[in-house]
Design a protein that fits this description.
By secondary structure, this protein is an alpha/beta fold. Helix content is about 40%, strand content about 15%. The protein has helices spanning about 40-50, 75-90, 100-115, 135-145, 150-155, 160-165, 170-175, 210-220, 225-230, 235-240, 270-275, 275-280, 295-300, 300-315, and strands spanning about 5-10, 15-20, 25-30, 55, 95-100, 120-125, 250-255, 285-290. Strands 1-2-4-3-5-6-7-8 form an eight-stranded mixed beta sheet, sandwiched between helices. The longest helix has 14 residues, at about 75-90. The two termini are about 30 Å apart. The model has no long low-confidence stretch (mean pLDDT about 95).
Length: about 325
């Protein structure tokens, strides 16, 4: 880990922290919520040892990167703009792009907006979610799961922050990193996160040191930056009307665990396996469903995920 280099660059009006290691073709890794560059600690080391220059930023709103206060500053055009600026700053023309959770959503939209900058795309956990002109994203989740679904509960500014502040941050991370699937995550107004169980013991892939790293960073920054991704998603729906029905035309691979909350949303398996996904991502070459694996797949099964990434990108 001490070989990983840390730096801060200016991009798209913010300061962005990046972790990087290695030389060779560049691979850009995008984390999700509630995460950091650190979620890619295993892939930074393993992919660099295979001959790649591996770069993992703290996305806007997270960790040591700037966190603009307004939710409107977290739409996917803004985040993709940050990443295009990052590539320009590092003088990188094209990149192998890998995303997980919100990072996957950003990566799909990166492929929609700027396919010219992507050599190949590998996304984990969250499949492409095409824009339905009749239903906004949050409305769709509320119709499926109701107001207590975590995505809906995160919408009101200040509400989730107040709930999170009532819990020890270390306990919070133990709950978050072990409760994303296979069933929906509900946070009731009555119980809040007290109704979400923390594990008696950590799973083998997660250490107390890992929990400490996340908790220390989020104690410093708070959660508002990350929550603003949820709060801006309907604005992203508004801003991406011009891309309704557009295809993502880059070579792509998708990896998901069968115990992942995202994979078990009603309609998702049908979309992935019955032709919808291939319609929207016509150069999708492979879908991998890993048995017995949950949402935080790149941390839970790091060696297998690295192997899946490497097997795909070495072809280009």
């Amino acid at each position: 880990m001490e070989k990983i280099q840390h730096s801060t660059i200016k991009t798209n009006g913010i300061n962005m922290h990046i972790a990087s290691i290695g030389t060779g073709p560049p691979v850009l890794l995008l984390h999700g919520f509630p995460e950091l560059w650190y979620s890619w600690r295993h892939q930074l080391l393993s992919l660099s040892s295979l001959g790649y220059r591996v770069i993992a930023p703290d996305l806007r709103g997270f960790g040591d990167s700037d966190a603009p206060p307004s939710p409107a500053s977290y739409t996917t055009p803004y985040i993709v703009g940050d990443l295009v600026g990052l590539l320009d700053h590092l003088d990188i023309d094209q990149v192998f792009l890998v995303g997980h959770d919100w990072g996957a959503t950003i990566a799909w939209h990166f492929g929609l907006f700027r396919p010219d900058r992507i050599k190949a795309l590998i996304n984990l956990s969250v499949q492409y979610r095409p824009r339905n002109p009749a239903v906004k994203f949050v409305e769709g989740f509320r119709a499926l799961f109701g107001d207590d679904y975590y995505f809906c509960r995160f919408q009101e500014p200040g509400e989730a922050e107040k709930e999170f502040a009532s819990q020890d941050t270390r306990i919070l991370f133990k709950k978050f990193l072990t409760n994303f699937g296979p069933g929906p995550l509900y946070i009731s107004k009555e119980l809040g996160l007290r109704g979400v169980k923390a594990p008696d013991t950590l799973p083998s892939w997660l250490s107390e040191d890992d929990i400490d790293y996340y908790a220390t960073k989020f104690d410093k920054t708070g959660f508002t930056g990350g929550l603003n991704y949820y709060r801006s998603f309907d604005l992203t729906w508004d801003l991406t009307a011009a891309w309704t029905g557009a295809q993502i035309k880059v070579p792509a691979k998708f990896i998901v665990g069968d115990q992942d909350l995202a994979y078990n949303i009603p309609g998702v398996k049908e979309y992935i396996h019955n032709g919808g996904f291939n319609r929207d991502v016509p150069f999708l070459q492979e879908v991998v469903v890993m048995e017995g694996v949950g949402h935080f797949i790149n941390q839970e099964k790091p060696d297998q995920v690295t192997a899946h990434i490497y097997e795909f990108i070495k072809k280009f």
